Amino acid sequence: MAVPAGVAAVVREMQDRLDAMPGDSPLRDFLSTYQRTTTAVGQAITDGVFADGEWVEEWDVVFAQLYVRAYDAHIDGGHVPRPWRIAFDAPADLPSLRKVLLGINAHVNYDLPQALLGVISDADFADPVLLGKRKRDHEAIDGVLASRVAAEDDELTATGGKSLVDRVLQPLNRVSSKRFLREARQKVWHNTHELQVARLAGPAPYDVRLGELELLSAAKVADLLAPGQVLLRLAVAGFGVVLPPAA
Q: What's the domain of life for this entry (predicted)?
């Protein structure tokens, strides 16, 4: 069955950028992974996995556009948020797995709370029943992502994007990946509420809190550039970031 029209349009936008990339672009690994994951989310919408598929489709488009804008700004020499700037400017000779993780980290920690705010209005936040429904669909995406971990792991192995140590640790890495994606998504929901409080207070307080999230997210992306087994380190230290209470 075809994926929803909004998701299909986003997948085409991603393909346009993949087609324009040099074959050896270090940015190809993340975008290829993201395109496959977006298609999987679209298929889950079609399959009725979510309570409100139309809302999830809207969220998926808003979320993807945050990446597309950051990527286009990077290519055009425009302003790129710090987490994405670090991810895009990472050394080209990094293993493919590390490149994918850099992009996932920037996108989930920095972009996802903004995307959720883009599709959850002030009135929605004031409605506990509706907000609960939104939260359950947000959590249901974990299942879609978890279902992709093994397939993406195999893709990286097949294309030579993993070291011998990565391959030896593959079963543990898969468990770690599912765990840190779930942990990050829980923190995202917390950060979305913190940004909502700031949004209610006005544009200036919101900009301050978003700036805090940008710095925290950038620091976490930078952590992934440290040497060592990144998935094992994330399994211990965690993947997400947490906005502290407003001062």
A: Bacteria
